[in-house]
Amino acid sequence: MVKDVLLIGDGGHCKSIIDVVEQEGQFKIAGIIGADRPIGSDIFGYKVIGCDSDIEKLSKKYNYAIIAVGQIHSPEVRINLFNILNASGFNLPSIVSPRAYVSSHALIGKGTIIMHDAVVNANAVIGDNCIINSKALIEHDSIIHNHCHISTNATINGGVLVGEGSFIGSGAITNNSLAIKKNSFYKAGVFIK
């Protein structure tokens, strides 16, 4: 049975989330909670039905929510939303694009989204509230801690630990078997060694 879900965030990342949710087919988008667009405005046929201050009230009507806010410079907004949604009683499902590959021997945390054409290989662990963006590669035995964003086409090679709240930019590549500190920020295209 298809379940109703709210998307929390109304910016550019929300548009990408809509596409993945529609293709994944487990949920029907019941509405968008936003900060930038007025209530009643429309994103791809889905209405903005409230703002952040409405989250607790909406938790009485809806069981599921997905954080649809991106993360570049800081994970703070996503972490705050994650905590608010948990405290309000929402279930935060992990969403995996049908165009992604996730090994049956990998673990994915709650509220994490795996975008189109991403690969999560054997024995990888992805924490809660992460974005594994389009075409990102998470190799075997890597651990991505909570609240991280692994950007488009980034490569996390085998045995890498990415600390909580970190951002790995588009096209960045890590060496094997290294530890990236909590709240690290790496620009697009860098080699992390």
Secondary structure blueprint with pairings:
Elements (H helix, E strand, L loop, with lengths): L2 E6 L3 H13 L2 E7 L8 E2 L2 E5 L4 H4 L5 E4 L8 H12 L7 E2 L4 E2 L4 E2 L4 E2 L4 E2 L4 E2 L4 E2 L4 E2 L4 E2 L4 E2 L4 E2 L4 E2 L4 E2 L4 E2 L4 E2 L4 E2 L4 E2 L1
Parallel strand pairs: 1-2, 1-5, 2-4, 6-9, 7-10, 8-11, 9-12, 10-13, 11-14, 12-15, 13-16, 14-17, 15-18, 17-20, 18-21, 19-22
Antiparallel strand pairs: 3-4
Fold and architecture overview:
With 193 residues, the protein is of the alpha/beta class. It has 2 domains: 3-87, Rossmann fold, CATH 3.40.50; 94-193, UDP N-Acetylglucosamine Acyltransferase, domain 1, CATH 2.160.10.10. It is 15% helix and 30% strand. It has helices at residues 12-24, 55-58, 76-87; strands spanning 3-8, 27-33, 42-43, 46-50, 64-67, 95-96, 101-102, 107-108, 113-114, 119-120, 125-126, 131-132, 137-138, 143-144, 149-150, 155-156, 161-162, 167-168, 173-174, 179-180, 185-186, 191-192. The strands form 5 sheets. Strands 6-9-12-15-18-21 form a 6-stranded parallel sheet, with helices on one face. Strands 3-4-2-1-5 form a 5-stranded mixed sheet. The longest helix is centred in the N-terminal third of the chain and has 13 residues, at 12-24. The mean pLDDT is 96.
Q: What's the alpha carbon Rg, rounded to whole Å?
A: 16 Å
- What structural class do you assign from the helix and strand content? alpha/beta
Mean pLDDT: 96
| Assigned CATH superfamily of the largest domain | Hexapeptide repeat proteins
CATH class of the largest domain: Mainly Beta
Distance between the termini: 46 Å
Q: How many helices in DSSP terms? A: 3
* Main sheet overview: 6 strands, parallel
Show unreliable segments: none
> Secondary-structure element sequence?
EHEEEHEHEEEEEEEEEEEEEEEEE
Relative helix content: 10-25%
Number of strands: 22
The CATH architecture term of the largest domain is 3 Solenoid
The 3D shape can be described as globular
Count of discrete structural domains: 2
Strand content: 25-35%
Strand line-up of the largest beta sheet: 6-9-12-15-18-21
CATH topology of the largest domain: the name is UDP N-Acetylglucosamine Acyltransferase, domain 1
